[in-house]
Write a structure and sequence with these properties.
The chain is mainly alpha-helical and 374 residues long. The chain has one domain. The chain contains 12 helices and no strands.
């Protein structure tokens, strides 16, 4: 990276995100397409199967077929959920690896990004599952528990002659509970937003990555919330921009409005909407990955003087301690000298695990790791 590092505003981070995404569009899109395509194929197959079951009659044969299909879908879900979680976690780590190398001005491609994170795949899988549990499973579980409790409490209250609505208090309590659960999900998601960048860059464990994220996000959680809000808005806008024109075209086809083709037209509409949503997801996923990586480095600049250390490394004033798994770097980073390549890879790709030898020089990252990305 030739331009000097400095603390960036949100607008500068967004602008830099667009520049990096545009300069390596095919790399980032290729990384994002893999988990999106897997989810599209599996989810689309399940949706079509459910739609087909819904069209069956209520006779004995229809119920038997529905039961067999439901059992098959249940068994498929037991295998598909861990598979989708694993491939999504690996893709997220590969996205962060590619974004880190792009930020530091190093070359990368789809294969190398996945290859670099593959040896530590279980670590990223555990981190991804923990994030899903904290952001989605716990709030949804609490809401389900409250709903079940209300379903039991209301009949008891009616039987005892008590107004179950409490003069509108039950509705207010439910609304407050929903807002609280949504707020908790947003807060924990922002708090853990830099866990993947920290884990990938610094080669630390999943739990250490979560602690690093909690520390690094301090002072910038409002900016990260704005980033999430803008990303969700972009996703919705693109989804409407793709789906609505396609639906209009479908409605203009004469055969689509006939009763004979109603079921087929419904299937096509479902596929169009479903496919458009996943195409948008594949397109917007790199935006979050790149932007969060830029936030990670920006927070390290603000909190740990990463920009000063970077300049010292490029000037040869700090010599990182050798790592046991370090490989020759001159061939992979042709635009830098051999000495600069080794220094850059130690801070950018082995990602902050080395200790500096100069007195008073800031440490790139806390803790050690299990070696650099290969």
């Amino acid at each position: 990276m030739d331009e000097p590092l400095h603390p960036s505003s949100l607008s500068e981070i967004l602008d830099r995100t667009a520049q990096i995404y545009r300069s390596r569009f095919l790399v980032f899109l290729g990384i994002a397409v893999i988990p999106t395509a897997a989810l599209l194929v599996i989810g689309g197959g399940v949706a079509l199967a459910l739609a087909r079951v819904g069209s069956l009659g209520s006779d004995a044969n229809g119920l038997m077929v529905a039961g067999v299909v439901g059992l098959a879908l249940g068994m498929l879900g037991l295998l598909a959920v861990p598979f989708l979680a694993g491939i999504t976690a690996l893709a997220t780590a590969a996205m962060n690896h590619a974004a880190s190398r792009a930020f530091l001005g190093q070359s990368n491609n789809i294969r190398d990004s996945y290859k670099a994170v593959w040896p530590r795949g279980w670590r990223y899988f555990g981190l991804f599952v923990f994030q899903i549990v904290m952001v989605w499973v716990i709030p949804v579980g609490v809401w389900f528990g409250l709903t079940l409790f209300s379903a039991v409490l209301i009949p008891v209250a009616v039987a005892t002659g008590v107004d179950p609505t409490g003069g509108g208090l039950l509705f207010v309590a439910g609304f407050v509970a929903v807002c609280g659960l949504v707020a908790f999900g947003c807060w924990i998601s922002i708090r853990m937003s830099l866990a993947f960048p920290a884990t990938v860059v610094e080669q630390i464990g999943a739990w250490d990555g979560l602690k690093r994220s909690a520390t690094l996000t301090q002072g910038s959680r409002g900016r990260i919330f704005v980033l999430y809000f803008l990303g969700v808005a972009l996703n919705w806008i693109l989804s409407f921009a793709i789906s609505i024109p396609l639906l209009i075209v479908m409605s203009l086809v004469p055969a689509a409005n006939s009763p004979q083709h109603a079921e087929t037209a419904g299937m096509i509409v479902l596929i169009v909407i479903y496919g458009g949503a996943f195409a948008v997801q594949a397109f917007t996923r790199p935006v979050f990955g790149i932007a969060l990586m830029l936030f990670y480095y920006d927070q390290r600049i603000r909190q740990e003087a990463f920009d000063i250390e970077w300049m010292m490394l490029k000037a040869g004033l700090v010599v990182p301690a050798p790592q046991p798994e370090t490989q020759p770097l001159a061939a992979s980073v042709a635009e830098m000298s051999n000495a600069e390549s080794a220094q850059v890879e130690s801070i950018g790709v082995t990602e902050g695990t080395a200790q500096t030898s100069a007195p008073g020089a800031p440490n790139p990252a806390p803790g050690g790791g299990d070696g650099p990305d290969q």
